[in-house]
Fold:
Amino acid sequence: MIYQPKSIFIFLLCCTFLITGCQQSTGDFKVQEVPVEYLKAGQGFLEVSTVAQGLDVPWGMDYVDNKVLFTEIKGKVKELNLSTGELRTLLDLTDVYTRTTPGLLDIAIQKNTKDDPFVFINYTKKQDSILVSTLIRYQYTGSELINRKEILTVAGASGHNGSRLLIDEKNILYWATGDVADNKMAQDSTTLNGKVLRMNLDGSVPTDNPIPNSLVYAWGFRNIQGMTFDKDANLFTAEHGDAIEDEVNWVRPLHNYGWPLIEGMHDTDEELAIVSKTKMTEPIKSWTPVIAPAGMAYYNHDQIAAWKNALLLVTLKSQTFRVLNLNSDQHTIKEEHIYFGKHFGRMRAVLVLPNGDILLSTSNRDWNPQPGFPKENDDRILRIRASKEQPKEFLQEDVAIATSEKQNGLVLFKNYCASCHREDGKGVEKTFPPLLNSTKIKDLPAFTKLLLEGTTDKQTIKGVRYEQNMASFKFLKDVELAEIINYVSKSFGDKKTTTPKAVKALRN
Ligand code: HEC
Structure:
């Protein structure tokens, strides 16, 4: 290995930490192989290094005893030793069903125990040819995962399997399940999908659950991808909206978060009419256009003062890391800061270590890599921590795109359509149909109707059956829809054009 001057400096810096009694020895062997980058956040500089690479969609991470255990979507559970940088495979499951989003998803490790801690994972698998989501428990000996026990199995699907796992200080396990793309699930408080479930570590119902003999804690969720507690044990989730309104929710027992009757804030006439009859809870934050939130963690360490008392959120579609500073009421968001736009690609999981370092995982080898990714060393686990250096070159906070500014067809297409149909209009095989040479886009009234109404039946297009529906885009203004239609027609079709007036006429 060739030692760069910078690496030696970091090595010395690390030794200094060790000598001065830093509890977490976070060895830098891996870091020396990959150049460190810097980020300016608030007044200070942070250092971003790679602690593991060559991974395959590290989906969930948790910490125990100076090690990070993490899942990879196709079925591996790996152990990263933070002292030595050593990476080991603990499990290689063979019954994981993985295609696009399903697979081995989250992991959670029991805290505060003198015994070998329990480790929970959940994954999609086929059971008698039907997809299910299963929650499994192991015990971690410090080097092995043993005593496998099946805890709970709920409905699974080819999409919307959630999910996140979280264990609180009292050893209660929370499992956020997806609605399995079935609109009947989330509002039915007797099913276990589209819910936050609450259980003892053996899967039994805690005696203080809000519904006696039921694991259901809160409902009305679509597809939760992030979940964390703050310092006061407030529970927060991040979830994917449909075409609009990705959300962060403050989850409380027996609250109904609205899906599929309501999306995001209660702000349309239809939604206001619904909540005047049935009590539903608004998110504390929503994003339109969507950003595709993924993992979320709570930061409350002095190491990075600007991020104290903040929710840290990584995202897939917008390829960013976001810091949502909380107000002292602990349930409203004061500020949002956005970092790393497209720099590391899609991001899946985030974990705060006891010493205040932050780990992020990339997701560039998943089913939907964005232009320029995956890079050779993807996927990676990155570490962010305070830097003592005054670097000459550094990344900076991203300036949010003002949504009020006039948006042309290309920008609108990128914001609302390209995540599925791709910027080149070629779609994603068997998942999202191509727009290039689609007959549908040559029939402008039919195309307009499709965008206004979405699809309700799964369509077979050119011999391929698509398993998901497309959401309605009627929330876009006539002028915006006309811009998109004309852009799609010009780029992928026969270049016919429409007008906002023609869109308006079809709207009613
Ligand atoms: C979340 C993913 C997603 C987004 C975002 C999305 N679509 Fe789709 N789109 C689909 C799916 C899935 C289908 C197939 C629907 C079905 O089978 O019911 C589809 C179908 C279509 C079709 C029909 C194709 C054909 O040949 O019949 C067109 C046209 C289309 N979408 C245009 C758009 C436009 C324009 C946008 C942006 C405003 C957009 N879509 C946004 C997922 C998406």
Remarks:
- The helical segments are 5-19, 269-277, 409-416, 418-421, 444-453, 478-492, 500-507.
